TrEMBL record, chain A:
Family matches, as InterPro entries: HATPase_C_sf (IPR036890), HATPase_dom (IPR003594)
Domain Histidine kinase/HSP90-like ATPase residues, every copy: 38-138
SMART domains: HATPase_c
KW Protein biosynthesis (keyword) present: no
Pfam family, one: HATPase_c
Membrane-crossing segments per the record: none
UniProt keyword list: ATP-binding, Nucleotide-binding
Name of the molecule in the record: ATP-binding protein
Any GO MF annotation of the entry: ATP binding
Keyword Iron-sulfur attributed: no
Length: 147, 140
């Protein structure tokens, strides 16, 4: 597995079949790194939310999956990248319940709660990249609950 | 969106209950097709309950969560009750953190409990002697 450290793989996000395939790849990578079942499920769910955003709002794009090693811990980084219309008001888009896609408005805000690191880069007219990272470590992380 | 998956989700009829077993998180198209299919089946014949078993489903994201909630809401408007069964612990933990607690959705730990729940709460329902009775809990 150490041979794959730092390697980035990329899959297209252009259909709901691609979403299923991307989820499958994330599951495989997370399980291979040794993430527990709950951590896998959270990461997989976040990936599903973000990949669907790429498909529905970004008009399709790709997902990149990278295995990380910072010397102390290993992790998995996922980026969902599109060249769609971008997000005009990021703060608004990150608000629970706000939606332009007819969904529940939990995609971005929910995905952020499910992972340890979350960055969103978007420019109107140029596209959106959302990157999330989950580290495999025993250290507790701050929680941001909704209830 | 570009592909409509050939694999649709099968719906079993157990007397006046419809039973759906999701084998894994269905494609978005298949989930929406299931919603449509269930609504039409409920309208066509007397259905008092819908049981959706998700014990094989690895993740429920906000899309699938919304489809489940909408199936339940639609069924409710047509006098049928929906019970989602078998949610995995990791899925439940993730849904809570995601903020998707689906307060309107009835759940049960397994299909037997769901059938008992539907049967027990509707004492006035008329049995269908040909097939209905044999499919109640205990026969599984």
């Amino acid at each position: 597995m150490s041979a794959r450290l730092g390697l980035t793989t990329s899959f297209p996000i252009g259909s709901d079949a691609d979403l299923a395939w991307a989820r499958h790849q994330v599951r495989r990578a997370a399980a291979g790194l040794g993430f527990g079942l709950v951590e896998q499920t959270k990461l997989l769910t976040a990936a599903s939310e973000l990949a669907r955003n790429t498909l529905v709002h970004g008009g399709g794009g790709r997902m990149e999956l990278t295995v990380l090693d910072d010397g102390q811990a290993r992790g998995l980084r996922l980026s969902c990248i599109d060249e769609g219309p971008g997000i005009r008001d990021i703060d608004l888009a990150m608000t629970d319940g706000y939606t332009t896609g007819g969904g529940l408005g939990l995609g971005l805000s929910g995905a952020k709660r499910l992972v340890q690191e979350f960055t969103l880069d978007s420019r109107p007219g140029q596209g959106t990249t959302v990157t999330v990272t989950q580290w495999l470590s025993a250290l507790p992380v701050p929680r941001s609950g909704v209830l | 969106m570009t592909l409509r998956p050939a694999v649709s989700v099968p719906v079993l009829e157990l007397g006046d209950v419809l039973l759906v077993t999701l084998r894994e998180a269905p494609y978005d198209g298949a989930a929406e097709q299931l919603q449509d299919d269930l609504a039409h089946r409920i309208a066509r014949r007397p259905v008092t309950g819908v049981v959706i078993d998700i014990s094989a489903v690895e993740i429920v994201d906000s899309f699938l969560g919304r489809v489940l909630a909408e199936i339940a809401a639609g069924a409710h408007l047509m006098a049928a009750r929906t019970v989602v069964t078998g949610m995995r612990p990791a899925v439940a933990i993730t849904l809570v953190e995601l903020g998707l607690i689906l307060p309107g959705l009835r759940t049960a730990l397994d299909v037997d409990s769901a059938l008992a729940l539907l049967g027990a709460a509707s004492p006035a329902r008329s049995p269908h002697p040909q097939e209905g009775v044999s499919c109640l809990p205990g026969s599984a």
